[in-house]
Specification:
heterodimer, A: mainly alpha, MetI-like fold, 2 domains, two-stranded antiparallel ribbon, B: D-Maltodextrin-Binding Protein, domain 2, 18 helices, 15% strand, globular
């Protein structure tokens, strides 16, 4: 397709993308460079039902409103928010490296910083869940493809269930099941004969449950795409492989997998992006003590009595940067293939 | 069952207030739009305000747990989406910070004849909110279990609670006699605030946003919180206040600090086994480290009137709310809350909150930067309470996180 036709085709969605994706991102980037004005504080008398009247600090709302009116975005802070302790923590890391008592100590202290703690879980989730979910989805697709026609429909429906269930509800269901009184929690305690064993108490087991949930909920997407791909595998190639005496495994390894490789790139791309934004299972599993993610940090900034838009904006921009870094290898490859085709 | 109960309660409210329904709220004209949190006591009030519906007078209510996220944007626009915002010690602060609510002195003079002086929340001499109920976390204990473990004296301090927990565990009666809402997030931070208030310490240096919890009081608070976890279910990190009532009703816990507003539900004969109901005792929150004030924050719930609305709507809203919290409405619903309204006689579920208040417990701080501290506590104490960090490191982390947020928020 000539570039011009391609452009004409893509124009409507391009406009929508600029309006609903690009512009909001620009606004988030701008917001991340600002922090709140310094509030004008005054001490006033404050009376309430308990303890009577006391002198307490209040925000002088009129004076603060005047400041706000002058500069509605707040105070310009440049990259200050990005570098502070809540985000990249540059000063803290410098200090940790210069005073640490060895590699292990440095890692432990860096892990104590909120951003790096969240990043660690986010990356582990991405790189464990994506390949496992793809492998599981592929296995299900192969299995379903070999089924007799009559049971195919219901099997596909049940295989898709994890994707149909709302993520928050799905994670709550699993969370209740691993409760020590729930079916999985009680069974595990029985197997290991340890009444204090709890999947929700230990950090390692919490991570394991979250990763398990991630694979469970992400597998159906890979399954659907791979199952569709399997329908396009050329029958004569498979037949000739059979005539040549290839076993089922050899047919999968040398015919089906190479045929589905481009699809796998696509699935990996989408899944990596999705998993980098992991959020619902952390809330559903009440796992905040042991696992946080970048999206959870954003949520946390915006859900207190005082909302920190600059901080949330900076974390969002860092998340976008993270997604771009993650996808870089795949994007570079797609770009090269695209260029090759055009030439 | 719960649903049925709710229906019964609201039906009885309707019936009881039916006679008043024709009693005029005295509103000439106007629109009343209420935003509130979602719990029993507030629903009682909202149901009562429906009596004021008449020709030219509309009353709508939105009771939602998301009220805190809605209130600032909804009251910022002009005219405001809601005319009444029901608030508590902490949630009034964002409204004050942005100047979104109006002084009520005129309206109180005109329509506030039923109000008691301690219901008026005055800031800088101006009445900004009307409180109608109090709340706090306080001690729930099972007298049968304590008796079985040979504890004669009811626990009044955290030291007593820990000693009793040890006795119960050693006697083999319960493995996990204690419970607390230690779930990282709002609950865990509230637990710290409660305990710290009991030490008599202040959170901030006087007159500034400088944090002042990194001291002996902070250490003592964390030490007690940690000591308690030794007697808790290993899943204590996932327990919030609602979960506490479930383990209480299941008879798995002997002592816990729980919200007064959930006391009624914890001994509701319709849902809880009779032996647990009859053996549950409510008492003041425990004291800490030889102190005399109960270690719990006192909360009030009240209402405010939006600034960006017409005076007519403001007047109508105030009148409707005065009807909603009238002594008649409260007298018909004595068990829904610990009311601050005239003529209220406390029911059995209110004794804990009243004992805590009478013991001189302090109110949850209303400083504009308290919310930032609460958020910092809610994330940074998680590792400490999970046992992965010592108290000194935890307090240093809280300070670092708070300082970062307070700088971004323009307070430091």
């Amino acid at each position: 397709m000539p570039h011009k036709t391609f452009f004409a085709f893509i124009l409507p969605s391009l406009i929508a993308m600029v309006l609903f994706i690009a512009l909001p991102i620009v606004s988030v980037v701008v917001q991340s460079f600002y922090v709140e004005h310094s509030r004008v504080l005054v001490e006033v008398e404050n009376c309430q039902p308990f303890g009577g009247c006391t002198k307490e600090v209040r925000v002088d709302s009129a004076a603060t409103a005047a400041l706000k009116k002058e500069q509605p975005l707040g105070q310009f802070n440049g990259f200050g928010t990005y570098l502070n302790r809540g985000h990249l923590a540059v000063a803290e890391i410098g200090q940790i490296i210069s005073t640490s008592k060895g590699f292990g100590d440095a890692v432990a202290r860096i892990y104590n910083l909120p951003f790096y703690k969240a990043l660690a879980f986010t990356l582990v989730f991405c790189f464990v869940v994506t390949p496992l979910a793809m492998a599981l989805g592929f296995a299900i697709a192969l299995g379903v493809n070999a089924l007799p026609k009559i049971v195919k429909g219901p099997t596909i429906f049940f295989s898709l269930l994890p994707m149909i269930i709302t993520p928050l509800v799905g994670s709550l269901i699993l969370f209740w099941m691993i409760n020590p009184q729930g079916i999985i929690g009680a069974t595990i305690q029985h197997i290991f004969n340890d009444p204090t064993l709890s999947l929700r108490a230990s950090p390692a087991l919490t991570w394991a449950s979250l990763l398990f949930y991630g694979v469970w909920t992400n597998a159906p997407f890979s399954f659907v795409v791979f199952y569709a791909g399997l329908q396009t595998v050329p029958g004569d190639t498979l037949e000739s492989a059979m005539i040549d005496g290839a076993s089922r495994w050899e047919r999968i390894r040398y015919v089906i997998i190479p045929h589905l490789a481009p699809l796998a790139t696509f699935v990996a791309l989408v899944q990596l992006m999705d998993n980098f934004r992991v959020f619902e299972p952390i809330v559903g599993f009440s796992a905040e003590a042991n696992a946080t993610s970048l999206s959870w940090l954003i949520y946390n900034d915006l859900s207190g009595d005082t909302q920190l838009f600059g901080s949330a904006g900076a974390t969002s921009v860092l998340t976008i940067a993270g997604v771009i870094v993650l996808l870089m290898p795949v994007l570079v490859r797609t770009w090269r293939e695209f260029n090759r085709k055009v030439i | 069952m719960k649903m049925m109960l709710k229906t019964t309660v609201s039906l009885s409210v309707l019936l009881l207030t039916a006679s008043a329904a024709f009693a005029d709220c005295g509103i000439a004209k106007g629109s009343v739009r209420i935003l509130s949190n979602d719990f029993e006591a507030l629903r009682v009030i909202e149901t009562a305000t429906q009596d004021c519906v008449a020709a030219g007078v509309t009353v709508t209510a939105n009771a939602t747990a998301e009220h805190k996220n809605l209130q600032v944007p909804a009251l910022t626009i002009n005219p405001a989406e809601y005319t009444v915002a029901m608030v508590a010690n902490n949630s009034i602060v964002p409204l004050l910070n942005d100047d979104l609510i109006r002084p009520l002195d005129d309206l109180v003079a005109k329509y506030g004849q039923d109000l008691q002086p301690n219901q008026l929340i005055k800031i800088d001499g101006k009445i900004m909110a009307i409180a109608f109920m109090g709340n706090s976390q306080h001690l729930f204990y099972r007298k049968d279990i304590l008796e079985k473990a040979g504890i004669a004296k009811a626990p009044t301090s955290y030291e007593d609670v820990l000693a009793a927990a040890k006795a119960i565990k050693d006697a083999g009666i319960m493995d996990y006699p204690l419970a607390a809402s230690d779930k990282p997030g709002w609950d865990l931070a509230a637990e710290f605030v409660n305990t710290y208030l009991g030490t008599g310490g202040d959170f901030f240096a006087p007159g500034s946003a400088e944090l002042a919890i990194d001291n002996a009081n902070g250490q003592k608070t964390l030490e007690i919180m940690k000591a308690m976890t030794a007697y808790m279910n290993p899943d204590y990190l996932t327990f919030d206040a609602n979960e506490l009532n479930k383990v209480w009703d299941a008879g798995q816990v002997a002592m816990m600090n729980q919200w007064g507003s959930l006391a009624g539900a914890a001994v509701d004969p319709a849902t809880v086994p009779a032996d647990i109901v009859s053996n549950t005792v409510f008492a003041a929150a425990p004291t800490i480290a030889g102190g005399t004030t109960p270690a719990a924050a006192l909360w009030w719930d009240g209402f405010t009137i939006a600034k960006n609305i017409s005076d007519e709507d403001a007047e109508a809203s105030f009148q409707a709310m005065m009807h909603g919290i009238s002594p008649a409405t409260i007298a018909a619903n004595p068990n829904a809350a610990t009311w601050l309204v005239k003529g209220y006689t406390p029911g059995p579920a209110a004794v804990g909150v009243i004992a805590t208040a009478n013991g001189g417990a302090r109110a949850y701080p209303m400083q504009p930067y308290m919310g930032l501290l609460h958020t910092a506590l809610s994330t940074e104490l998680a590792e400490f309470i999970a046992g992965k960090e010592d108290a000194t490191q935890a307090l240093a982390d809280v300070k670092a996180a708070y300082d970062t947020a307070a700088k971004e928020g323009g307070f430091l």
